[in-house]
Amino acid sequence: MPSPTPGGTDDPAIDELRDAHDVLAEFYAERLAGALEASPLDRSVLDLFATLVVGSGLGVAVADVGCGTGRLEPYLASRGLEPRGVDLSPGMIAVARRDQPGFSFEQGDLRALRFADASLPGVVCWYSLMYLTPADRPGAFAELARVVRPGGHLVTAWKLGDDQVRRGGRTTGLGIEFDVWWHSTPEVEDRLERAGFETLFWAGRPPADGEDSPSGYLVGRRR
Ligand SMILES: C[S@@+](CC[C@H](N)C(=O)[O-])C[C@H]1O[C@@H](n2cnc3c(N)ncnc32)[C@H](O)[C@@H]1O
Q1: Residue 62 to residues 101, 134, 179, 208, 211: CA-CA distances in angstroms?
Q2: Do 28 and 80 contact (CB within 8 A), yes or no?
Q3: What whole-number distance in Å separates Cα of residue 154 and Cα of residue 41?
Q4: From the CA of 110, how far away is ligand 1's center (Å)?
Q5: Alpha-carbon distance 6 to 63, whole Å?
Q6: What is the reported pLDDT for 5?
Q7: CA of 141 to the centre of ligand 1 (A)
Q8: Closest to 46 in 3D by CA, of 219, 169, 183, 209
Q9: Mean pLDDT score of the chain, rounded to an integer?
C-alpha cells in the first residue's frame, strides 16, 4: 500500500483528500477490478462520449481527470481515444502506471490543469468532481472548460444525491476520511452550463450490488 505523500499544500482539506486517496489506491485497484466490464450502463455512457469525440473531427486525445488507478484507460483506447490520466494522488498515479503500463499518467490537480487552453477534444471526469468544495467549484469547472476545445466534449459520472457534504472513506476500515458531496443532476448541469458546456445527455441509475448510492451521468459539449 503506498504511504501518504510527505509534505502538504496550504489547504488541509486537499491534503486530507490526497493522503486518503494515496491509502485508497490499492483498495480501489482490487475493489474496482472488473467493475467496468460488469457495467454495460457505464460502458454505454463512455461509448456515447467516445462516439461524439471521434465524430467531432477535433482529434482523439482526451484527459481522464481524476483517473485513479487508470482503470478506464484501456476501454477508452478500445473506443478509438488516446487517453492520458491525471490525478491528485501520487499513490493512485503509482498504481495506474503499474497496472496500465501502456498509458501516460501524471500527478495534477483538476483545479489547475497543466493543459493549454482549448487543447483537448475531450475530458473524462469519472467520479472525480465530487470532492470540490462549493467555493472551488466555479473555478474548477471553468478550468475544465478552459482546456476543452469549442465543440469538444466532457463526460462525467458521480454519486447522485442531495448536494450535502458527507464524510467519505469511513466504511473502508482504512482509517481515512475526507469530504465528499453526492450531487443532484441540476447542480452538476448548472455548474457545467455556467462554465460553458451545453448538456447533450444526462441519466441516472440505481445502486448496483455493493454500491452505496445511485449514479448520475452527463455528457456535455463545449460551446
Ligand atoms: C472515486 S475515485 C475515481 C477514480 C477513477 N476515475 C475511477 O473511476 O476509477 C476519485 C479520484 O479523483 C481524484 N481527485 C479528487 N480530487 C481531485 C482533484 N482536485 N484533482 C485531481 N484528482 C482528484 C482522487 O484522487 C481519486 O483518485
Answers
A1: 17, 26, 27, 27, 28
A2: no
A3: 17
A4: 9
A5: 26
A6: 54
A7: 15
A8: 219
A9: 96
**CA gap 184, 161 in Å, rounded:** 5
Where do we find the cell 444526462? 202
Mean pLDDT of 27-55: 97
Closest CA to 33 of 70, 7, 8: 70
Site to probe by mutation for ligand 1, drawn from 19, 21, 159, 166 as the one with most ligand atoms within 8 Å of Cβ, is: 21
Pocket of ligand 1 (CB under 6 A): 17, 21, 32, 66-69, 71, 87-89, 92, 109-111, 126-128, 131
Give the Å distance between the CA of 111 and the centre of ligand 1: 12
CA 89 to chain centre: 12
Instruction: Pick from 27, 87, 166 the residue to mutate for probing ligand 1's pocket: most ligand atoms within 8 Å of its CB.
Output: 87
Letter string b/e over residues 116-155, b meaning 16 or more CB atoms within 10 A of that residue's CB: eebebbbbbbbebbbbbeeebbeebbebbbbbbbeebbbb
CA distances from 98 to 1, 91, 93, 178, 210 (A): 13, 11, 9, 25, 26
Sole residue written with cell 487543447? 119
194 alpha carbon – ligand 1 mean position (Å): 22
Residue 65 in contact with residue 144, Cβ under 8 Å?
yes
**pLDDT (tens digit, 9 = 90+) per residue, 2-11?**
445 566 788 9
Region for residue 127 given its phi and psi (left: phi exceeds 0; alpha: psi -120 to 50; beta: otherwise): left
Residue from 64, 65, 88 whose mutation best tests the ligand 1 pocket (most atoms within 8 A of CB): 88
